[in-house]
Known about the structure:
elongated; mainly alpha; homotetramer; 0% strand; Methane Monooxygenase Hydroxylase, Chain G, domain 1; 3 helices
Amino acid sequence: xxxxxxxxxxxxxxxxxxxxxxxxxxxxxxxxxxxxxxxxxxxxxxxxxxxxxxxxxxxxxxxxxxxxxxxxxxxxxxxxxxxxxxxxxxxxx
Amino acid sequence: xxxxxxxxxxxxxxxxxxxxxxxxxxxxxxxxxxxxxxxxxxxxxxxxxxxxxxxxxxxxxxxxxxxxxxxxxxxxxxxxxxxxxxxxxxxxx
Amino acid sequence: xxxxxxxxxxxxxxxxxxxxxxxxxxxxxxxxxxxxxxxxxxxxxxxxxxxxxxxxxxxxxxxxxxxxxxxxxxxxxxxxxxxxxxxxxxxxx
Amino acid sequence: xxxxxxxxxxxxxxxxxxxxxxxxxxxxxxxxxxxxxxxxxxxxxxxxxxxxxxxxxxxxxxxxxxxxxxxxxxxxxxxxxxxxxxxxxxxxx
Lengths: 93, 93, 93, 93
């Protein structure tokens, strides 16, 4: 069982809210709202998405990475490098 | 008429795709897929959102900012500072 | 003359300060200070660098892009796309 | 001993190179080089700084966080949350 399954409901609520925000963006563009307001809302959706990612990262490090390390420190190191590469992808998204 | 109204259909298609990706994220978490795969997908959705933002910024600079500058250079300067502040919010999202 | 030449002294002061911060990072690592403190300082230097970039972007849009647009709107459009591509590189740095 | 002390020389070399790049930025502005070229160079320095941060994060997770977890899993959790908060600061820099 993945570590994050305890917080599944919280993630589902946050993603449902983000989905609504993306629909809101489509509506803003349909109504030709001011560009800068759309950009502000895009920054807000991005931040909400990153928040989900940071929550998952926290749980991944406390569960998957920890368990891998307990089985085998070398496997733990590989998981850490994998997680840092995922952080790099978020940073460069 | 906002500058981006010419590309409305393109933005709507991209946002519909992003909305589908966010639903995909909810499904990945529901199915307890591997955290790192969810993080990779979050980076991909973030990048797609930023792409919409960059497209809007391009049109905003070519339309709203340009028209403001033609009316009054001081108004143009204010619009530029407003756009740069929006970029800052994207950078720090 | 580039638009930013009016603010040269301000940029030079900010960059001299950033250079000092980078030397401070080297010293923190030499003294084996706590990783998280080094990361916090890296975030601070990054933000200072981005601040210089945003200042340059503001002036570029108000000078080079504006002058290009006055000469030829098509040339202005090309300059805008070039500036948005530069923003994209900052976002993905 | 901090985990990163094994790679001290590598970090020192990278930071010396970044310091040189920041001095190069000051020179570019002094010579009034093209804004977009300065922005491209700022993106490159930012990426180099983030690279140092990601290296430190990797070692921090494999050393400090791992040792804290071995002493006490609750302490390990606190260290993980601290590291994720540091990632958040990098993301929002």
